[in-house]
Design goal:
Blueprint (H helix, E strand, L loop, with lengths): L8 H11 L7 H9 L7 H13 L4 E3 L7 E3 L6 E5 L5 E4 L4 H14 L13 E4 L2 H12 L1
Parallel strand pairs: 3-5
Antiparallel strand pairs: 1-2, 3-4
Helix pairs in contact: 1-2, 1-3, 2-3
């Protein structure tokens, strides 16, 4: 079925938008960017093509409870770090396979699990980014 998938100007543009930024955009953000190039594009078209790109393995959907889904074009194994204040997402890459396994082994040990009996997916670490910390520090100094 996927072999017969037609080329799509809209899908190509949406993929390019996701690939050419590092903000882990929402569908609404992608829609705003896409309208600059295809003014007639609809939000439903953006959602439909994002879902197709996820299905094709071209991008990853990041679901955050209580927030809009975000999209990522980095398909290598990595974690996400989210600012608990502004919501900014950053990628964290294990230095190597061993460091990824160290994280997995630490989780397995903490929860008495076998490392090969669970999977880490869409790992989200929380932090306060430098900008938000600066803003908070300035408020406290007044």
């Amino acid at each position: 079925m996927l072999e017969n998938l037609r080329k799509s100007k809209q899908r190509d543009l949406i993929l390019e938008i996701v690939q050419n930024n590092n903000v882990h955009p929402t569908a609404e953000w992608i829609y705003g960017e896409a309208k600059k190039f295809i003014p007639t594009i609809g939000i439903a078209t953006v959602y439909r093509n994002l879902n197709k790109l996820v299905e094709l393995g071209e991008i990853e959907k990041i679901s955050i409870p209580g927030e809009s889904d975000r999209y990522d074009s980095v398909m290598t194994e990595h974690f996400h770090m989210r600012c608990s204040s502004c919501g900014e997402l950053k990628d964290i890459f294990p230095v190597n396979e061993e460091s990824f396994n160290d994280v997995k082994n630490a989780i397995a040990e903490a929860f008495n699990l076998e490392p090969d009996k669970f999977e880490i997916s869409e790992t989200m670490l929380s932090y306060v980014c430098e900008n938000c910390a600066d803003i908070e520090n300035k408020k406290q100094c007044k």
